[in-house]
Amino acid sequence: MQPSIQLCREGAELNRSCRFRKGNIINLPETGKVIVAGDLHGHRRNFERIQKKADLKNNPSTHVILQEIIHGGPEDDYGGCLSWRLLFEVIRYKIEYPDQVHILLGNHDTATICNSAVLKSGKEMNRAMQSAMKRHFEEHYQVVFDAMTDYMLSQPLAIRCANRIWLSHSLPADQFVDNFDLSIFDRPYTLDDLERPNPVYLLTWGRRHSPETLNRLAEMLDVDTFILGHQPQEMGWSLAGPNTLIIASEHSFGCLLQFDLDTPYTAAGLSGCVIPINSIE
User: Fold this and answer.
1) pTM here?
2) N-terminal to C-terminal alpha carbon distance within the chain
3) Domains plus CATH for the chain?
């Protein structure tokens, strides 16, 4: 119990003190490589392959971007979701490489923090994960769960690259763009910000953006190209308009994206940097 609490606390402190972080944005350096994973949803084997591909011990200028670790993957004997175990493994990865591993806040994280219902494959995932944690931690469940949600609240909202690429779990949906509060990237976000229709909720839950919205957001955020997760991809990735690539890493056809920080890219150009995770031995 205590090691799990300490793990979450140490991971939260490292998220907040990352030397590349300003406000809620990680500003990556002008050189190096980036490996981006889409939603993992409990897929441990894909996480292990991502770690192998990155080989951070021997590549100190490589950065790994992860997101949406929880809700999916193995279950216990009662159907409880065990994805919290993978989240703890990811936090250990962050602790080992604090300035190279960056975990973005996603909508399943906000749903966990707010204890709101979120469905995946017909199952309410918060209830499934909480029941598994209660069986494992027993009387210590609440203090471990609180430490885990505090960790989630420490996660950055976005990554900005000098080559004008922006990474976030998602973006506000079309109808919310004009009133989206950009100050959320500069100030500490609160529990209220995670509730609909406030800015962290809008940032992490938006889907099916129109080309006009993506162009408007690129102008607002002063970037050229978006890399997002959140939207399921049967083949692991897709282009969502001329300036946006979506990546997914949660299944056997999951992909990652690898690109150089000192090279300009269009979304179409980034599509040539997509790597099937199952090709990593």
Assistant:
1) 0.97
2) 34
3) 2-279 (3.60.21.10)
